[in-house]
Write a structure and sequence with these properties.
The protein is α/β, with parallel strands linked by helices. It is built from 16 helices and 14 strands. β8 and β9 form a beta hairpin.
Length: 423
Amino acid sequence: MKAGQLVNKIRKEMQVNLFIQDLFNNPTIEGLALKLSSQMIHTKESLSSLKSQTHISSENSSRDDTRTDQTNSSLDSDSHYSNYKLPSPICSSTSPVSLLIQSLPIIVLRPIKTFFSWFLFFSIWISLLTHVNISRLHSLVLAILITGMVTSILMPVFAILSKWIIIGKYKSGRYRLWDAMYLRIWLVDQIIMICGKGLFEKGNLLLTYYRLLGAKIGSNVKISSKAVIKHYDLITIHDNCSIDDCTMVPFGLEATNFVMLPISIGTGCVVCIKSIIIPGSSLPPYSSIGPLSTSNDQSSSDKEYELHTKMCRMKYQPPSFLLQYLLGYPIIIILNVIKRIPWYFILSWMVYDARSNGTYSKLNSVCQIIGWFTTPHRIGFFFFIRVVNYTLMPFVNLLLVILVKKLIIGKFQSSSSSTHNDL
């Protein structure tokens, strides 16, 4: 972190594109001075050549105008830290309160989630058996599907409400480790992880999910569903940004304390895969971060911006509407149905076994369903399904992926020479 702060200060004062790797490659003052001198000469030559050229597109034009006003507005971390007084020594991680709160996800949250899912499933199943004229097997399968859909909505909503009740708004500052704020932040992170994103996992619903948690997100923003984003009130993402599979967390450790520093992503920024946005970062408009980089390695040059744009998957155009709904989604539905065949077969076996053993009694209440479903014999079927899911299904998924690849894509072809040169 200290190296990143030094690089940011040098960038701000010297107006050069310096990277952390340059700092380690030139550990002496003389070597670093030579590096900076060559960078400054290169920067002046680039600026003079750029002035003599016209921009190819209006997007580049607006990007340069914006940079003129907001160039090199990257983080000066020390200025953030100086705003917060150093608190008293840390609390104990083994105090009774700390241990109790750390045990809540295991002894309370996960059991409650499991109980709620099963109770909801039993309630839906008895309603289908009572009010819908379908067989027990089909009502069982339908109840499982409905339960999955309902929990994929209710669980994320519960996580959002828990965040606002337990913490409210995340606030920037420096705090003691293992104090009340630290434990509340940790507990909310665990609740959000346990509940998952559910139906809010992709597309515009994902943006809505982050906004409901407090993030400030502009229009025409694309965020990967695999991006790790936390402590949402301290996240600001302006218009037309593309965020790939990266880590964007305003939480950082400093000696015996932790800091919460805001993160701001300027208009039109591109963040590539496996990159890290460190706490307190402020990316200027139309800047970019390459793959496997940090926000200390941000670049504002046209050439690198165009290169990183080609590397960012969120910048790729999606398939056409017809291709998605006439080919893509039908294939996904068919594959999901095929993957459920072993699961459906085991459920059919369980119902058939009940008929054969004379235990196929009429079920009129949730208590009767619980008693019927939790007999030692049927619990064995439940564990059998779990074993199949973890042992057989990965191979089924692999075979289906290979089949789709062979039938639809065939062999991957190498790119043209011009595309290869661009990348």
